[in-house]
Amino acid sequence: MALMAVMTWRGIDGMARAQQATHEHTDGVLALQAGLGQWRADLDAMMVWPLPGTAVDPANAAAQTNSPAATRSLAWDGSVLRLTRASSRAPGDGVRVVAWARRPTGEWLRWQSAPVSAQNAWASAWEAAARWGQAGAPLLPPGAPAQAVQIGRLTDWQLHYYRNNAWTNPLSSAAEAVAGGGSSTNSAVPDAIRLMLTLAPSQPLAGALQVDWVRPTLGGGS
């Protein structure tokens, strides 16, 4: 009887462990799917800032209007991607600054600011996103109200932009030639963005993953 009880307990324990492993695998896959869905949603909602009629600090109106950063939608420095996106689909809700970054330890995170509706508030959020990335992408950002969420773990990630019928690395000299010498390759919204991830082996899904996004106004969908 004792032997049968031990065998029964081991069988139950094995089933519980298998069930736990299945749940962890499912949770990991769902978390990655949700993260990639958020990635697409951020890009779909990307917009040029400031909008016509946006409040501007009168003391710095000329500098804010003429600065390349004043109309920047997108910036990628090889480690942190920053973008300006609509806060929601409701008009008048302002915009958010969003950043995506990979920590040196491999965690891939998304950061977002609180909604802003004035140019100086946007500029502060834009700089806060850069500082967050430079600080190693902490999960609890210091300072102004912001949120950061871990999506998964990566060993590497890269971006390519599609402009003028060519895929290029936006940090390369070839990208400048494709975009044209008079415009910033990091600020103009590309026709498409290719996200190339190398998922860490410690996750339910591992290895290379490629996600292409197409600007909604280019062909009607992404």
Short description, anyone?
The chain is an alpha+beta fold and 222 residues long. It is built from four helices and eight strands; from the N terminus they run ααββββαββαββ.
Note down, in words, how this protein is organized.
- By secondary structure, the protein is an alpha+beta fold.
- The protein has one domain (2-214).
- The chain contains 4 helices and 8 strands.
- Strands 1, 2, 3, 4, 5, 6, 7 and 8 form an 8-stranded antiparallel beta sheet that branches.
- Mean pLDDT is 79; it is low at 58-70 and 181-186.
Total helical segments = 4
Could you give the distance between the termini?
63 Å
How many structurally independent domains? 1
- Strand and helix order: HHEEEEHEEHEE
Unreliable stretches, pLDDT < 50, 5 or more residues? Answer: 58-70, 181-186
CA-based gyration radius: 22 Å
- Sheet-strand content, in percent, reads 25-35%
* Helical content (DSSP H or I, runs of 4+): 25-40%
Q: What gross morphology would you assign?
A: elongated
What's the overall average pLDDT, rounded? 79
Looking at this protein, list some descriptive labels.
32% helix, 222 residues
List the helices and strands and how they pair.
Blueprint: H1 2-44, H2 61-66, E1 74-76, E2 80-86, E3 95-102, E4 107-113, H3 119-134, E5 146-163, E6 166-168, H4 173-179, E7 192-199, E8 207-214
